[in-house]
């Protein structure tokens, strides 16, 4: 027994030592941050040319890391290991980060290019007066489908996805709010629903979709659809725009039952070591020409009104990607449902993913 206890103690000490050394190494690697910033953004969500341009113009080096869901980003920032200077949460994640005291208030005087942002994207309910966040891109969650194979207009609603003829045809984006939200909407419920019976019904409905689901994937969803590996994808609007520019067989639809309207935003986490650098980066990205270059590259809708002058008309006038106010009214923005309910969504989504195996 003594021997076993000693072994346990030894393993515990070894693990603790490894853990603290890894932490120290990580911290040391980021010690020289007065000439650098660490940016934490969604994958495929910036023109890399702009990072080099920022580095050349300011002499500030950009250390760039990516995530593929708000949930993954929230967990990493809350854990605090990496001293991120800039992050890009969606609106409900901004609320969560404010509630958890993870953000610093912005110095709006250091972001004069804020004037370029369309007023209607400012001062939103998740962050009145833009105390903590500045709009980056916005869009919807919807369905991109191969109209050449399935037929023009073949898909109009979430419920169309359950058609048994689409066996093994659908790729889903790997996000808990997105996919549970889709199932809730398909049942006529709000994608902010917190009623346990409705959530269980949504999970059961998702399980019924399983035979049609080919895979649940991250940013590779674009490549897989562009190269005809699947005929249907549940994606964010800008990813659809990118797929459609590479493969003209695809079309994008905002499902008729309604869907999510989202807003992604720059924030400065409390972990920041280079606060002036973080402001300089945000201001640089808000410059009209830079925002236009970025918009053309990533394919998402920009809230930067001044950038519109530099964008081709067909980009900024496409109602699939810039839905007008009447369409937007029918869509829902994710609300921050609190830590416990977000955990419940994550749990149900995980169960759905396991059920597939
Ligand atoms: C881009 C991610 C889009 C973010 N790959 C949707 N909020």
Automatic annotation (TrEMBL):
Q: What is this protein called?
A: ABC transporter, periplasmic spermidine putrescine-binding protein PotD
Query: SUPFAM superfamilies, from UniProt?
Result: Periplasmic binding protein-like II
Q: Does the keyword Signal apply?
A: yes
What is any one of the record's Gene Ontology cellular component terms?
A: periplasmic space
The major lineage groups are: Bacteria, Bacillati, Bacillota, Bacilli, Bacillales
Family matches, as Gene3D superfamilies: Periplasmic binding protein-like II (3.40.190.10)
Q: Does the keyword Lyase apply?
A: no
Per UniProt, where does spermidine bind? Answer: 92
Q: Which GO terms describe its molecular function?
A: polyamine binding
Tell me which UniProt keywords the record has, alphabetically: Periplasm, Signal, Transport
GO terms under biological process: polyamine transport
UniProt superkingdom: Bacteria
Subcellular localization, as worded in the UniProt entry = Periplasm
